[in-house]
Amino acid sequence: MAEHTATLTWTRGNDDFLDKRYSRAHIWHFDGGATVAASSSPHVVPLPYSDAAAVDPEEAYVAALSSCHMLWFLDIACRAGLRVNRYTDAAVGTMAKDTSGRLVVSHVQLRPTTVFDAAHAPSEAALAELHHQAHEACFLANSVKTQIDCAPVLEVEGS
């Protein structure tokens, strides 16, 4: 089985922290060397304590679902002999309270626009079936109720 890793780094800096006035900006580091500026959503934590230019976890979740779906779609279309020229998805995630009153990403609407080569394009019905197959195969769409465990490590400074 494959493992996929990400390292998150946040530092308090000069903020007091206990007054609740601290930056939520942090960095995601990935094993291939990519780093991404991340933060809480300004919809959840107001500016200036969030960084609106950074990726927030909710956006990353929507993007990851969209990306996984697209990658499966491209694979299935390729195997079917359908030449895809471009694929754009303006995906939207909606936050709402669940039955327990917790705020969750309750719905993700994928809205892909796919441009095909005229000689290798599917019918509308075949396109819908390709997206159905991609959804069924998508690792992340099949993982949204993933078990999450936490193994904390305690370190103390200044003692």
Give an overview in words.
The chain is α+β, with helices and mostly antiparallel strands and 159 residues long. The chain folds into two domains: 1-55, no CATH class; 56-144, K homology (KH) domain (GMP Synthetase, Chain A, domain 3, 2-Layer Sandwich). Helix content is 23%, strand content 23%. It contains two helices and seven strands, in the order βββαββββα. α1 crosses α2 (124-137). The longest helix has 23 residues, at 57-79. The mean pLDDT is 93.
Give the SSE layout.
Blueprint: E1 6-9, E2 26-30, E3 35-38, H1 57-79, E4 84-89, E5 92-97, E6 103-109, E7 112-116, H2 124-137
Helix pairs in contact: 1-2
List the defining traits of the structure above.
159 residues; alpha+beta; GMP Synthetase, Chain A, domain 3; 2 domains; 3-stranded antiparallel beta sheet; two-stranded antiparallel sheet; 23% helix
Question: What gyration radius follows from the Cα positions, in whole Å?
Answer: 20 Å
The helix content is: 10-25%
Assigned CATH class of the largest domain: Alpha Beta
- Measure the end-to-end span: 42 Å
